[in-house]
Amino acid sequence: MNFTSLFFISVGLAMDAFAVSLSEGLALKRIHVKHILRVALIFGFFQGIMPLIGWGVGGLFYDKIARYDHWIAFGLLTFIGGKMLWEARESQKCETEGKCDIASNIIVLGIATSIDALAVGFSFSLLPGLNIYSAVTVIGVITFIISSLGVYIGNKAGELLGYRAEYAGGIILIGMGVRILSSHIA
């Protein structure tokens, strides 16, 4: 996998964390560096560790699924991307109807926003030659940066993107799934 593909997967995965970071920033009257670091470190950590776990579990089953790897990667990424689009739609309804239930425990949010990364890690186990440690580092760092920006933007600019960030993330992941499938079919 080239860096460009990994970059776009990382950005797509980080969109859930970005959306939650925006809402965390909105909840803060005054922002401090410690708020930004706390949110960004937790999201970056979980987004980085979950693909490693998924890769490890997926590696156990590689021999049994190697013939179908591109279909599995396509299915997982398309499912995750579709799930993100659905969640974005629900977030949009939340904003327009004003019935939002926002959790305050950032660790739980870190885990919840990284479940998609677990499935992506499973897909990574199907890619021979992928340096998983480089991949999870890139995912974690990009999530850290995007989450930092999310808290800051949420605090300073209000609802700049909101649910639209999840739409972008879902579209990116579906696009990556289609690219993986088309490269194996062609």
Automatic annotation (TrEMBL):
<keyword id="KW-0812">Transmembrane</keyword>
<feature type="transmembrane region" description="Helical">
    <location>
        <begin position="6"/>
        <end position="27"/>
    </location>
</feature>
<protein>
    <recommendedName>
        <fullName>Putative manganese efflux pump MntP</fullName>
    </recommendedName>
</protein>
<comment type="similarity">
    <text>Belongs to the MntP (TC 9.B.29) family.</text>
</comment>
<keyword id="KW-0406">Ion transport</keyword>
<keyword id="KW-0464">Manganese</keyword>
<feature type="transmembrane region" description="Helical">
    <location>
        <begin position="132"/>
        <end position="153"/>
    </location>
</feature>
<feature type="transmembrane region" description="Helical">
    <location>
        <begin position="106"/>
        <end position="126"/>
    </location>
</feature>
<keyword id="KW-0813">Transport</keyword>
<dbReference type="GO" id="GO:0005886">
    <property type="term" value="C:plasma membrane"/>
</dbReference>
<comment type="function">
    <text>Probably functions as a manganese efflux pump.</text>
</comment>
<keyword id="KW-1133">Transmembrane helix</keyword>
<dbReference type="InterPro" id="IPR022929">
    <property type="entry name" value="Put_MntP"/>
</dbReference>
<keyword id="KW-0472">Membrane</keyword>
<dbReference type="Pfam" id="PF02659">
    <property type="entry name" value="Mntp"/>
</dbReference>
<feature type="transmembrane region" description="Helical">
    <location>
        <begin position="39"/>
        <end position="62"/>
    </location>
</feature>
<dbReference type="GO" id="GO:0005384">
    <property type="term" value="F:manganese ion transmembrane transporter activity"/>
</dbReference>
<feature type="transmembrane region" description="Helical">
    <location>
        <begin position="68"/>
        <end position="86"/>
    </location>
</feature>
<feature type="transmembrane region" description="Helical">
    <location>
        <begin position="165"/>
        <end position="185"/>
    </location>
</feature>
<dbReference type="InterPro" id="IPR003810">
    <property type="entry name" value="Mntp/YtaF"/>
</dbReference>
<keyword id="KW-1003">Cell membrane</keyword>
